[in-house]
Amino acid sequence: MNSSFHNNPPSVILLRRTVLGTFLFELTAAANPIEIPEKSVAPENAFLIFTAILIEILCVYLVLRRRQKPRFFTAWLIGMHLFTYPAFLALLWCLHDVRASIAVAAGEGLVVLVEGWLIYLMCRHLAPANSALRPPSPAKCWLASVLGNACSAGAFPILIVAYDHLVSR
Length: 169
Prior knowledge:
Blueprint lengths: L2 H5 L1 H17 L17 H21 L9 H22 L5 H26 L12 H31 L1
Helix pairs in contact: 2-4, 3-4, 3-6, 4-5, 5-6
């Protein structure tokens, strides 16, 4: 970790607020906009969401492969989704009166901006200080977020068909 991160009190306060916010957004996970009669998360939905997130993480990693990244970058990206996915569901729940396509587009746009910003902060503040690689720019992080979310969204229909094909056997 960057030694200036530990010596800078505002950074420590920001980290504490981020961790606290992550746990508070856990409460918004109950605001699932998709009503499923028996269970809130069916196994196939969990599989599809988890696989789509892994595809997104792979895309982000590939876009930023020649840039400075923190140690355990993949774990940081998975942790980021523990914050952004419940926040996305909460936003969809708040926009339940708006047309579904507009609400999802607005939510995805906001998720791309927030994830790009969080990736930038991770690469800037959590990466080792003695790395020979340069940290990515905010634009590069947002590009990685856009491409990751696009790959994830594009893979979702394919994952549904693949899951149905595997389960039907």
